[in-house]
Amino acid sequence: MAKMTMVQAINLALQQEMTKDDRVVLLGEDIGRDGGVFRVTDGLIDRFGPQRVVDTPLAESAIVGMAIGMAVYGLHPVCEIQFSGFAYHTFHQLESHAARLRWRSQGRLSVPMVMRAPYGGGVRALEHHSESREAYWAHTPGLKTVIPSGPRNARALLAAAIRDPDPVIFYEAKGLYRAFREEVPEEEETLPIGRPQIVREGTDLTLIAYGAMVRPAMEAADLLQTEDGVETEVIDLLTLSPLDEALLLQSVTKTGRAVVIHEAPRSFGPGAEIVSRLMEGAFYHLEAPIARVTGYDLIIPLFSRERWYLPNARRIVDAARRTLSL
Question: Residues with catalytic annotation?
């Protein structure tokens, strides 16, 4: 198997799905000749032509609005929004139309579209380029929200998202785009949307993370084992909505303790929903309160201060130790 970055793996998924199904079309700003701002779509216009790789004007609402119309009439559009902080202009189209058409038409219509967007910090970007606002989409009925954590699962989940009959928000942590390589098979591979994975098994503590936070969670698990002898289980959510709580409850029932990690702001964030479900389903198995390690309730800082905002392995270890001491 070839070792790929996340950018290469996502490009492979798009290439394979477009080859397999001529209903798959791409839309976005500069995704054609320039290959997108992060070069995720590099080379695809040469292979599939400008009718299937469409360079659009700088108009996010129009991009998603066109995609909804295409999807209703049988295509499988994949939109690229250059940065997730620009996706707020799409909210009316997604909330009022894409998310509701199946319900509004009593099942006669579906909207098989994907909105891809790089999210989060870690690349020292400007304002509106580093937000982690996935809670907006996960909170919206009718939308699925998928957030991969590495090249292989990004490729597999994007293929599944493109084939899904309903609209999918596909958030890609830009800090992971070229952070590491991973073996990705050439043959087609998908992962089910809505299914988390245990990426490290343990018995003393459960760490729950997604996207860019899976790597610091794994680093924290290594530190806890080396420094404290703690066997930590790490769960990669992969999908925020629908959120499959069965695996989370199974893990926390076993370990009795949990820490939830995300870089989105703390208040009303995804972690609060996860904690609530664990309290409802595993309360009598908990040995200590569930901890959260998150971003802070402020706009993500610029440049040199960004690293103080983002959760890291040490913050996770400190929260874990507090939880283990109770």
Answer: 129
